[in-house]
Amino acid sequence: MELLDIVDEKGNPTGEVKERALIHREGLLHRTSHVWIARKNRKSGMDLLLQKRSAKKDSHPGCYDISSAGHIPAGCGYLESALRELEEELGVTARPEELEDKGLRRICWDEVFHGELFKDRQVSRVYLLWEEIDITKLRLQKEEVESVMWMDYMECVNAVKSGSIPNCISLEELKMLKSEVPRNA
To answer: Residue 177 carries which DSSP code?
Structure first.
């Protein structure tokens, strides 16, 4: 059973702890960490590592998503959770100082997956990790991640806008990754 802290609008734990499935059934506010892995390129300035979510995931199965993301267990912090998720999902070990904090983002949506209503209310801390990774050497957590791929930043923005790839990526979050987003982003 995965226990999560219920949080206020700023992501501060309220002292109340509930089980993850109940949180998503009731639409309670909780925390997540999002880590985008990037490498420099000559086209737009950066490639992003996208993960394709497992078809068995309870939300957005089979969709391209953030490099690594996860719920923050009760009593844990954003950074600690971000580092743990990187290791668990991709086999990537990073030091705390390597994660560039891009800020908080509030997420709110309701959708049906596998015939069940899923209410998501998150306060997410978004991190950026610059790392040249050989994706053939990653250790993917098969229950979570089906595959990974590199995609140019602007190609990713355009794919999200057009829906040309199945995804659950937020344009708002993509814009958080660059201090100066190109005009057509």
So the answer is: T
